[in-house]
Amino acid sequence: MKVELNSGIHILKKGFILLCILLYSCTQEALEQIKAPEPSGWTEEEVASLLAFKVGRFEYNTNTGNNFDNTAIAILNHIPSDKSTDVNVAEKVTVEFSEALDANSINENTVILSQNGTRISANTSVEGKILRITPTSPLSYDTNYTLLLTTGIKDEKGNQIQSDYSFQFHTAQKKDSIPPEITATDPVSGQTGILSGHTILVTFSEELSADSVSADTIQITTDTGNIDKNYTVSGNVLQIIASPYLPTQKKISLSIKKEISDLAGNPMSSDYEFFFYTADDIPPTVKATNPTNNASMVSPNSKISILFSEVLDYNTVNAATVLFQKDGVPVEATIELKDDTIWISPLSSLELTANYTVTLTGGLKDLYGNALAENYTFSFQSYSLNLQVAAGYTSTCAIIPPGNLKCWGMGSFGILGNGDTANILSISEAVRLNFGFFITVEQVSVGISHACAVLSNKKVKCWGDGAYGKLGDPNISEIIDINEALYLPFPEDIVQIQTGSFSTCALSVSGKVYCFGINFNGQLGNSNNLDITDASKAIPISFNPKAIKISSG
User: If you count Cβ atoms within 10 Å of the first and of the last residue's Cβ in the chain, which end, N or C, has fewer?
Assistant: First the structure.
């Protein structure tokens, strides 16, 4: 209810209130008198509205009474702390004040971040009592920083800090992120003649964390299993001692696992492996040769192999220590060492019925430097080719030296195997068919419209008309080029092939017979008259005693 102002005292009282507020000079007693009820004058709403008025540092409301704030704001805490070290370069600088801040008072003049005395750019943000300072560029490693807060900083009521405030901190050194590397080993990888009591040394590019080295991060093995060991870490050197000793005459393999780390905790980038050979005094010996000594009927396209009792030193295997001769004359050949076996590959086919000799000299050594005790010699003779002519219904094929094939006659269905279906009327026009390097033809058979051959690798190829599956593949209608013919998938070596009119049979080394193709008269011999068009599904037929030759019509 509005009360009329009918006395000058009320006007004076109202003016006193306004003056009190504007001059920031209201005492608690004065304010209580102003608030005291009068028999007439202002409404309670008018008094409450005036007493809730805010100017500068003055605040008053009817619930709490006077809250007159003129106390300077204080800095309660900050991160990092003064003179702190090892500060993360990603750290945000945070300052906590006693009062909520006036965000407008936070600027480049009141908040100054310096790096080694030079001011750097930074962004600031205010959240109530919290001031956050974020450098526009990341802090540098191992650097001094100073934050200066000036008296221009105010709270929401205009109170300032009493004096400038500064603190310092130092960032952490840059963390090592480079993984350790193995720079040397003793023995070096591949070294020979190492004594059984040798201390193995592994040198790294930097000092190791001893805690990262364990029995699981070091493995020593031979072909018979793991070797027990002891180990110590001294700076950047790992020492490994086999317990009790390294086995003699062995290849020793070491694996250093990537879990090993440096002092900064950086692990190796990958496992590291090396090997060496312990010493022995036993010379290598010849265990076997192929061909055997005094062998005859050796294929002209054979490779010669010599198996030793141990791995040889690659550097000692050459034409001076491995002599390959025919009647005392050197034969051109490549000589290779693969682990414990020497391979001799003649550059051309061996001469038929010629005598050959291989001599291994004392210059051959094992990995420990032990030489062959005495020269080793073996001899063999190459065989005479099984020259053969196979006549079919309209075509003929012949095996010619040094194991190739020539076919002539009707060329239908590609039965001549030369990539064409034209007829060849003269032997002189027949194309020499070569089945591959070091592969010769041992036997050939020609049918009405297809032909097959047994090769020196005891495998079979067929070509020509593929009707009724007589080429051994139901998906092939014809093959006109022997180079496109595939090896038939028999489960064992084949020694003879025989082509019929519409079927094919093969005799294996064990005496079993495999037949496929048309079977309307039971010519496949498998107790039924069902055709077999896939050689891999041919049913093996056994004989007692075993078959030694086959023929078909």
Answer: N
